[in-house]
Amino acid sequence: MRGGVIAWLTATVLLAGAMAVRADQPTQLDAAGLRSEMRINRLLAAYIERNGMPDVAERSFLSDMPPWDDHQVTLFYLDRHQEISFARAYILGWPSIAIERSEHRLSDAQVAALAPLARSRGVVVRGGALARAEAAAERAEAAADRVEAAADQADRAATRAESIVSKMESQPARPAARRRPAKK
To answer: How many CB atoms lie within 10 A of CB 139?
Structure first.
């Protein structure tokens, strides 16, 4: 019995040690994991909306003291040689501030080391230059459609205002109502 307890305790300590080592290592995010992070970090979501999906994304543990959240998300755009990290900061106990924590240029060696990760993972959306350009063109077209709809609405409002003004000008002015003197 005593040997079983010691074996169980040893296995528990080894497992806890292995988990502690893994917590410090970055973990790759698939498309679903990245979308989940985008829901909680608005700045990250806005950046990806503007620049397209990254080639590789990873989540890493932050050992910083408060006010930082416990992790950051790093995006890698290989064709631009860019690495950019996002994190959240706590204010009054709530992670309400999203911050671009760092931005670095990747060397050719770093890009070469990350390239197999981008190619080997079928779940990551490859955001090459062509895909990002097409996404940007679609966003620009949608924005142009919204501007056109707003212009049409403004034109209709201007037409209504002109018709009201022309009606006011064509009607004869009414005499002002006479006031009766106040009775005492």
So the answer is: 13
Per the structure, the complete domain to which residue 37 belongs is given by 23-143
CA distance 85 to 76: 9
Q: What's the whole-model pTM score?
A: 0.52
Is residue 127 domain-resident? yes
Task: Give the closest residue to 47 by CA, choosing from 83, 95, 94.
Answer: 83
What single letter denotes the amino acid at residue 7?
A
Residue type, 175: P
Residue 72, C-beta contacts closer than 8 angstroms, at least 6 positions apart: 59, 60, 62, 85, 86, 87, 101
Whether residue 67 is preceded by a cis peptide bond, meaning omega within 30 degrees of 0, is yes
**Pairing between β-strand 94-105 and β-strand 68-77 as defined by DSSP bridges:** unpaired
Q: Is 184 helix (H, G, I), strand (E, B) or coil?
A: coil
Per-residue pLDDT of the chain (184 residues; tens, 9 = 90+): 566 655 555 555 555 554 444 456 888 888 888 998 999 888 999 999 988 889 899 998 887 677 778 888 999 998 889 999 998 888 777 767 777 788 889 888 888 888 888 765 543 434 566 766 776 777 778 788 888 888 899 999 999 999 998 888 888 767 666 667 667 6
Residues 94, 135: Cα–Cα separation, whole Å: 33
Q: How many domains does the chain have?
A: 1
Q: Chain centroid to CA 143: how far?
A: 18
* 27: in domain: yes
